[in-house]
Amino acid sequence: MFEQFIGIKPVDKRLSFDTGALESYLRERIVGLEGPLQLAQFKGGQSNPTYCVTAADGRRFVLRRKPPGKLLPSAHAVDREFIILHALHATGFPVARPYVLCQDDSIIGTAFYVMDYVEGRVLWDQSLPGMSKSERFSIWSELNRVIALLHTIDFRVVGLETFGKTGNYIERQIARWTRQYQTSQTEQIRAMDDLIAWLPQNIPPQTGTTIVHGDFRLDNMIFHPSELKILAVLDWELSTLGDPLADFAYHCMSWHIPPGQFRGIAGLDLRSLGIPGESEYVAMYCKRSGRSGIDPDHWNFYIAYNLFRIAAILQGIAKRALEGTAASDHARDAGKRARPMAELGWSEVEKILRRAS
Question: What's the mean pLDDT when you consider all of the chain?
Answer without folding.
Answer: 91
